[in-house]
Specification:
By secondary structure, this protein is an all-alpha fold. It folds into two domains: about 140 residues, no CATH class; about 240 residues, no CATH class. Strands 1-4 form a two-stranded antiparallel ribbon. Strands 2-3 form a two-stranded antiparallel sheet. Strand 2 and strand 3 form a beta hairpin.
Length: about 375
């Protein structure tokens, strides 16, 4: 479905949120599409297990943004007294569409349903959006804060107190944690790696808390307070979240794959810092020119993410002859001949990813100029 909007964004729009969303999506594309997975700078890789890198901030940032946006889209409808049954239907429909698109991306291009992965990024977004929206419909800001805290505490208890057959209590290893055990029971081999999945079922619980943290931030932004005061509080609370997350890390390690409670608090604090800086520069100071590429991506975030996956899978599918006579994917041929040949394997891999972002920006800019904003 395509909506039209002004090319010049409305003055009442939270432009910093569009920028934040766009930069986050660009980050996803950057880390997902190196020229070669054998040659990637360490900050552009996920942490192997416990710990974090800048890459590990990207997905929780997006779920946080989903929550902030919810405060400006769903909450006003609730406050106006819109029919809740119709709202629920729209929420359910949107969630199922997002999940469906995610399953399509996992299946594309071979559509081998017997061998495909079932969990995924968009699947998690759709599920988390559904539960966070239902919570938003049923509770006020205080209730949402209480539920977010309870979700984190409950998940901490589940992961550290319930024994896993063959591994015992509090095993946070890739195969031995409770989430992996549940995913093996439900999905079998249809996971990202044999035996576990970073977007598994159990870790969806704390992921909902990530979105609720964004929703609470959105409530605060809508209070009508002085904008400089709002930015200041985002910095203060953001640092509080970072410090609390690091402290919790001592007993429940920060881990993106497990989406641990410490990871939720830490990344929510970091998201508040990033949004606070963007809000100060863009919405308060009015310095928007530098943020334009991010805004363009942010206005068509899901569309560019889906397009990036389809194009890359297609490039891998097409086989061509390399200079040595062997058959390689078109993706590898482009990397080797147009980037690694002059920049070297490591810098060429980065140049490939950055160039791909540039190509996708061109496509999204055309949509932006034509006032086409694709939404689900």
């Amino acid at each position: 479905m395509a909506d039209t909007a002004q090319t010049t964004l409305p003055s009442g729009r939270l432009v910093s949120l569009d920028f934040f969303r766009g930069i986050t999506i660009a980050g996803m594309i950057l880390v997902n599409n190196p020229g070669s997975w054998s040659h990637v700078y360490s900050p552009l890789r996920h942490a192997e297990w416990h710990g974090w890198t800048p890459t590990d901030l990207i997905f929780p940032f997006f779920l946080f943004i989903v929550g902030v946006a919810m405060a400006f889209s769903l909450i006003p409808r609730i406050e106006k007294g819109d029919d809740k049954s119709r709202l629920f239907y729209k929420i359910l429909k949107r969630s199922l569409i997002i999940i469906g698109v995610g399953l399509f991306l996992n299946a594309f291009p071979r559509f081998d349903l017997l061998d495909m992965r079932y969990p995924g990024v968009l699947q998690r977004i759709g599920i988390v959006y559904f539960f966070a929206s239902v919570i938003a419909m049923k509770t006020d800001a205080r209730g949402q804060a209480v539920i977010a805290g309870l979700l984190l505490l409950v998940y901490w208890g589940l992961m550290t107190l319930i024994p896993v057959p063959g591994y015992g209590i509090a095993s946070l290893t890739p195969e031995g944690n409770l989430g992996a055990f549940i995913d093996r029971a439900v999905f079998g081999t249809h996971t990202w790696q044999d035996g576990w999945d970073p977007e598994g079922l159990l870790s969806t619980i704390p992921a909902v808390a990530t979105t609720l943290a964004g929703l609470l931030t959105g409530h605060f932004l809508r209070l009508g307070k002085d904008r400089k005061e709002i930015a200041g509080w985002m910095f203060v609370v953001g640092w509080g979240g970072i410090i609390l997350g690091l402290a919790w890390n001592i007993v429940f390690p920060i881990n993106k794959n497990l989406w641990t409670s410490s990871y939720v608090v830490f990344t929510a604090g970091a998201a508040l810092q990033f949004l606070g800086v963007s809000y100060w520069l863009i919405d308060i100071k009015g310095w928007r020119g530098w943020a334009f590429p991010g805004i363009v991506f942010g206005m068509n975030a899901i569309a560019v993410y889906v397009l990036s996956g389809i194009v890359v899978d297609t490039l891998y599918l097409i086989q061509v002859q390399s200079g040595g006579g062997e058959t390689v994917s078109l993706y590898s041929w482009i990397y080797q001949n147009l980037f690694a040949s002059w920049a070297g394997p490591l810098n060429g891999s980065l140049a490939f990813a950055l160039s791909y972002i540039g190509v996708l920006f061109g496509a999204m800019y055309l949509l932006y100029r034509r006032r086409i904003f694709i939404k689900v």
